[in-house]
Every structure is written in C-alpha cells, then in structure tokens.
C-alpha cells in the first residue's frame, strides 16, 4: 500500500508546473491511500467504502491546482529558478540570519610564516516571521454523487481559484511586505517597502517618462549607476508596470528597428524586464538575485488539505503555503533593491 506519487497522463508543460504537481502529490496531509489495485483504503490497509474522492478525482483536482499555480507564479518562480529557495521546518516562526562586517584587506607576502594582522568580523542579526497563507473551499456529498450519476467530472473551479488566491497573496507580500504579521516585533518587508532600498523618480535617475522612448535607456543607466555605487553590480531582475512595459515595446527610429525592451535586455547588468500587475502605473522594482540580497524560505510547499464534516455530508478543503521572502542588507545598511517611480 502506498500514498499516491504519480498521476496518469501527460500534464507537465513546464518545470514550475511539474514541481507544483509533485509537491501536491507528495503531500503528507493527503487522507486517501490506495492498495495495489487502486482501491481507496485506510493506513492499515482496510478498504474505505465511504471515501469522498476516488483516486482519479484526487488526481484531477490536484492537477488543476498545480496548473493554476504554474500560471500565476512569478517572483517566487524566478527566485526558485535562481537557486535562491530553501526549506524550513514548519515549527519555525522566525527565520533568522546575520550579516558580517567586512574584513580588513588580505596581506601579500612571500613566505608562509610571515605574521599578518588578525581580524574578527562583527555581526548584525535579522529575522522575519514565517506566515501561513491559506484559503478554503468545500464539496457536498450530494453534489459529488450527482456529478458521478451524470457521468461528469468533479468541478475544479473553486480549487483553482483557491490556489490562485494563495499564490497572489504570497506574491503581494513579497512586493508590499506585511505589518499585519508580527513576531517578537519583527514584520515582513517587501521589495517596495524595505527601508534600505534605493528609491527615486525616473527623472532623478537621469531619465524620465517612458512615453518618450529616449528617456528609457538613461533611466536604466542611472539606476544601475546608483546600485553599483553601493557595490551591487547585478545582473538584476526587473519588474515593471504593464503600461510602461508596453511603452518599452516601441521601436527606435535610429535605423536599428530595435524596441526599447530589446536594447535594455542587451545590457550586461539586466537579467530580464517583466511586466508585473502588482506594480503601480509608472513603477518598476529591481533586485539582484543573490543570497546576500534576497532569498526564499519555504516551511510548507503548496498543499491541498482535506477534512470531513462529522456526519460525512461535506468535505472541506484548504489550499495552503507557508514561507517567507527575506530581503537583506549589507553591514552598512545598503540593499541591492531599487524602486523607481514616475517612469
């Protein structure tokens, strides 16, 4: 007898989708187990004749959730792709780290035994809460019996919308932070709320409104000049409001026929520029995808949890995720994150 580990059919259209699907299927919360004949049973191997969902219905529900996660995931996916995600035990309420001061310059010698100056780093300690994001949906037993009698599949809309709501809230907190969650006085900063981020208008960085195509390149060069002055050299991940993203698709009239977006993404300090609907009009945010600037800590990957009403008339479900995106500064208080407005 084994828990469900695989699904039938070909669903994995992308790595993010495949990862989301495997996470749900590997869930330690899944209530149904199956014997070698595919029949639902209890942990001790006895058959469950009144189980709410069949194996095929579970697979359909989980596949729909995983697909919606892959469609909506954005910043989380980019952090995972950059190798900046790790796990935490679910019992951790605060994720902690420390930042060391710079050491003195190494000395250059010709002999091993030459005595050199010793140095000891000083450390600053930081922490952020690790919240749980969750939303519920449910099925009535009579509804399930009716769709089975009619030969229809279980409706997955509510499950998909629940997964989408969780992912969107996670992404919103990454961008905006949250002061609603506080543990030992620590709250969660976001890309546009971290106190140490670089801020300024496009004009202040030497550019201006992106409605004028000649303002775009100077803005990007000005932001990079400021960040590199704080020893953050990129390359940077950049999210921009939809309106300004469209403006970057305009082409130069200098004979190159390139769009402004093509020109910007050819710069050595730019990984990508993506439209993001969490950005307000005229706004973009930058971050250097390195562990000293930003990373993700996941205590519970996306789960589809179920429990039943005492009279077994209704099954209740909860889509949930637990984790936090950690925004970091160096010992001097500088961050490899920038927020630009009035683009």
Features:
disordered N terminus; five-stranded mixed sheet; 15 strands; hypothetical protein PF0899 fold; 27% helix; single chain; alpha+beta; four-stranded mixed sheet; 343 residues; 8 helices; 27% strand
Low-confidence stretches: 1-14, 46-50
CATH architecture of the domain at 193-294 and 332-341: 2-Layer Sandwich
CATH domain class name of the domain at 193-294 and 332-341: Alpha Beta
Could you describe the largest sheet, including whether it forms a barrel?
5 strands, mixed
Radius of gyration: 25 Å
Distance between the termini: 59 Å
Proportion in helices: 25-40%
Task: Tell me how many strands there are.
Answer: 15
Mean pLDDT: 82
Shape: globular
Provide structural commentary.
With 343 residues, the chain is α+β, with helices and mostly antiparallel strands. The protein has a domain at 193-294 and 332-341: hypothetical protein PF0899 fold, CATH 3.30.2320. It has helices at residues 15-25, 55-72, 75-81, 141-149, 157-176, 216-229, 242-247, 260-265; strands at 33-34, 40-41, 85-87, 94-100, 123-129, 132-140, 178-183, 186-188, 198-201, 236-240, 270-275, 284-287, 294-308, 314-327, 337-341. The protein has a five-stranded mixed β-sheet with strand order 9-15-12-10-11. Strand 13 and strand 14 (314-327) form a beta hairpin. The protein is globular and about 80 Å long. The chain starts with 14 loop residues before the first helix and ends with a strand.
């Amino acid at each position: 007898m084994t828990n469900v580990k695989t699904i039938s059919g070909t669903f994995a259209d992308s790595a993010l989708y495949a990862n989301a699907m495997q996470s749900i299927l590997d869930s330690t919360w899944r209530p149904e187990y199956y014997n070698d004949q595919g029949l639902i049973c209890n942990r001790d191997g006895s058959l469950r004749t009144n189980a709410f969902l069949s194996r095929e219905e579970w697979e359909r529900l989980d596949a729909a959730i995983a697909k919606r996660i892959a469609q909506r995931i954005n910043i989380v996916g980019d952090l995972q792709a950059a190798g900046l995600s790790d796990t935490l035990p679910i019992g951790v309420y605060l994720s902690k780290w420390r930042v060391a001061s710079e050491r003195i310059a190494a000395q250059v010698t010709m002999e091993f035994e030459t005595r050199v100056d010793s140095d000891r780093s000083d450390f600053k300690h930081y922490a952020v809460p690790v919240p749980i994001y969750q939303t519920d949906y449910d099925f009535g037993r009579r509804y399930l019996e009716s769709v089975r009698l009619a030969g229809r599949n279980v409706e997955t809309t509510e499950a998909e919308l629940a997964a989408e709501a969780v992912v969107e809230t996670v992404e919103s907190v990454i961008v905006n932070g949250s002061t609603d969650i506080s543990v030992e006085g620590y709250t969660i900063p976001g890309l546009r709320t971290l106190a140490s981020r670089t801020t300024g208008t496009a004009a202040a960085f030497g550019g201006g409104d992106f409605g004028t195509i000649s303002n775009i390149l100077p803005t990007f060069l000005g932001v990079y000049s400021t960040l590199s002055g704080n020893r953050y050299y990129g390359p940077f991940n950049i999210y921009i409001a939809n309106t300004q993203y469209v403006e970057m698709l305009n082409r130069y009239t200098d004979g190159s026929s390139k769009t402004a977006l093509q020109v910007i993404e050819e710069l050595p300090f730019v990984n990508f520029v993506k439209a993001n609907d969490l950005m307000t009009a005229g706004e973009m945010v930058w971050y250097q995808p390195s562990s000293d600037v930003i990373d993700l800590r996941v205590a519970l990957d996306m789960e589809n949890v179920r429990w039943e009403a005492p009279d077994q008339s209704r099954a209740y479900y909860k889509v949930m995720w637990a984790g936090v995106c950690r925004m970091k500064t160096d010992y001097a208080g500088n961050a490899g994150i920038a927020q630009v407005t009035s683009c």
